[in-house]
Amino acid sequence: MTQVLRLWPLLSAMHRYDKSISTRNRGIGTDIDAPILAYLIETRNGRILYDVGCDYLKIADPALRKRYYECGAAPMPAPQMIEEQRIPNHLARLGLQPSDIDVVMIGHLHFDHAGGLCEVCGSDIHVHADELEAARAQADLAYFQDDFSGDYRWRTQRDEYDVAPGVRTINTPGHTAGHMSLWIELPRGRPVILAGDAADLTENIDDEVAPGVCWNDREDLALMSIRKLKALAAQTGATIWPNHDIAFWHTLARGPAWCA
User: Which residues sit opposite 169 in a β-bridge?
Assistant: First the structure.
């Protein structure tokens, strides 16, 4: 039986970029607005944070912004992020602080998913071993080395496992070497699959389109992961939540009946 009590999506920033970054070989020249989301999962055994968004200081400080986002090697333009969207401020609005987080689950270590690790550095950090290895080897430019080079309490695994009863990791490589999604059994209603960047948009799921960036150009792995999520959703009656879909985010923001 699930021990999940509540689930909150947290809007940590907004990003505007070329659509082909989310849909491989589609939408070139078309800009889209994309939410950068994290999720807080409260269980009877503790609290789990899936992803942590960007490092706020790299965006807010002009010198750091220039270094990370306005140089020739920058992977993407800087996201739009305000002070209120930092993870500690989201937690404070829920009556919590970073020390109340027991596990941080990082789907992958790109800057828009792992940059906020500096805000929750006292928690256990779960990440796939292949992901940490690829990130440290700078597999692509979206890894900012100092986002994950601190004195963190890494808990690496390769097999799928239950983080808590009702919360299970799903290995979904393709976008990155060790990408992980998360299956969550809610206390009522349908389970939820947090796709992470295995599926940025609903279009990735419906049309089985790989993300624009694939580890070692392994589009085949990315498509296998999308199909794996769809099969799991069909098997368990789950709903797949894409990670950077503005229209989907608006549906979450309007009526979160699943989080109470």
Answer: 182
